[in-house]
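Appendix B, record 7
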Amino acid sequence: MKAFKQFKLFTAGPVACFPEVLEAMKTQMFSHRSPEYKELHEELTKRMMKFIETRQTVMFFPSSGTGIMEASIRNCVTPRGKVLVTIIGAFGTRYAEVVESNGRVPVKLEVQLGDPITPELLDEALRKNPDVEAVTITHNETSTGVLNPLKELAKVAKEHEKLVFVDAVSALGAADLKFDEWQIDIMFSSSQKAFGVPPGLAIGAFSDEVFEIARKIPDRGWYFDLLLYKEYHEKKKGTPSTPPIPQMIALNVMLEKIDKDYGGKKGWLEMYEKRAKTIREGVKRLGLELVARKGYESPSITAVRAPEGIKGPDVYYAMRERGFELAQGYGPLKETTFRIGHMGYITDEDIKEMFENLEKVIEELKRRS
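C-alpha cells (predicted):
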C-alpha cells in the first residue's frame, strides 16, 4: 500500500492524534453487543457527562457532528416549524440549509464575517420572531475563528422560552461548556477536533425536554431517531447500529488523560487557551491580521487575513511544500484567508517551527507579488 506523506498538522480537523490514542486504537475488536463494549459505553458516557457537566443524557453516534445537527431538526421541530438560525460563518449557513432541507423554515440572524452574535442582537431577533421553536448557535465558527458568547446567548434564548441547539463541533474540548447550568437542549460535537481522536464519532448531549418533544414529532426517520437511540442507550448500553469502537476507545483514553495529566477539564482548557494565545501572538508578530473581532477569538483555530497581493491558498500550498498542513480559508473567505488550527497533538517546538517557515513563505510570496 502507498505510504502517504506525513505533515505536521495545524488543521481544522481531522487533527494530529495523541500518541496514547494511536496506541489504544491498536486494540483488537470486540462485538458491540458484548460485555466488553457495554463496559466501554458506560465508562465513556460517565466521563463525557462529567466533562460537559450534565446529569442528563449523553449519547454517541456513528457519524460526523452534522448527523446530530440534522437529528436536532428532525426530532425537535414540527414540520414547517420555524427555527432562528444564528449565522457568523459557513457552519451557521450549513445549519440553515439543514433546517430547510428537512422541511422546516430557517429565520436567519446573520452578522458580518469575523463578528459574533451578541445577546442584544439575539434578543431583538426573538422579539421580532416570537413564533420560532428553537435557536441554533454555532459555539465556535471554524471558518472565521470566532467564539460566540454561548452562555449569554443561551440565557437570552431561555428567557424567550426557546429550545437551544448548539453546534460545538470545534469548541467542545477547547472552550468551556456547562450543559446543565447554561440550559442547553442539544449539543453536538465530533471526535476529530479538540480531543485529538480520528473522525467517525459524534458526541451528543440532550435535555430531558428534548425527548418529550420528540415523542410528538412525526417522521423522525430511523438512523437519527433520538427516542430509538435513548432506548438502546438505557436498556442495552449500546447504539441501534454499529458504533465506531476504536474511536470510542480513543476518546475514553483522552478523557482519562485529561484527568490524569492535566488535573481535569480546567487544566486542559487552560492548555488550549495558552496555545491559542501563543499562535495569535505569532500571527501578529508577522504583521498579519486576524479575522475574528478582538475579544471573541477562538481557542481552537485562528483565521488569518492573507497579506495584500497574496492569496490564502498560495500560503497554504507553500506551507505544504515545507511539510506543514494548515487549513485553507473556507467559504466566502477562501481566497483572502488561511487558517491555523490549534487542536490535537501539537508541541511547542512544532509551533515555533511552523512560524519560522510561515515567515519565510510570506516573505517569498511578497517578493513574487
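Remarks on this record: Residues 8-15+264-368 form a domain with the Aspartate Aminotransferase, domain 1 fold (CATH 3.90.1150.10). The CA atoms of residues 92 and 138 lie 6 Å apart.
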